[in-house]
Design a protein that fits this description.
The chain is mainly α. It has one domain. It has five helices and no strands.
Length: about 110
């Protein structure tokens, strides 16, 4: 199984696990922010530059709505991963189209 920040793919997170994660986040929010030489404070100009880089990356990641015919077996496998299966299919397609070995098998 593949671990993500939301779930172990294919397995829903239990209520107790959600509670544990929520408590961990709440503890982290209460921790003091420590700025040192390894993590210096960003200037306003740095933040503007970083926000522009993030905007450009988000723009590059925009998705298009398309209509595809996909065999039912592939859809069933994707859906077995639970919520977010369409994003998973998008990533599989992304990597598959860039891998010559996969392309060769598919052609």
């Amino acid at each position: 199984m593949v671990e993500t920040h939301k779930r172990v793919i294919g397995k829903k997170i239990s209520a107790s696990e959600k509670r544990r994660v929520r408590e961990e986040i709440e503890r982290a929010e209460k921790m003091p922010l420590v700025i040192d030489d390894d993590s210096p404070a960003y200037s306003e100009e740095d933040m503007i530059r970083l926000m522009e880089i993030a905007r450009q990356k988000n723009e590059a990641r925009k998705k298009s709505l398309v209509s595809l015919r996909i065999d039912q077996d592939s859809i069933n496998i994707a859906k077995s991963f639970g919520d977010g299966y369409t994003a998973l299919m998008s990533r599989v397609l992304y990597f598959g189209l860039r891998d010559p070995n996969i392309l060769e098998k598919a052609l």
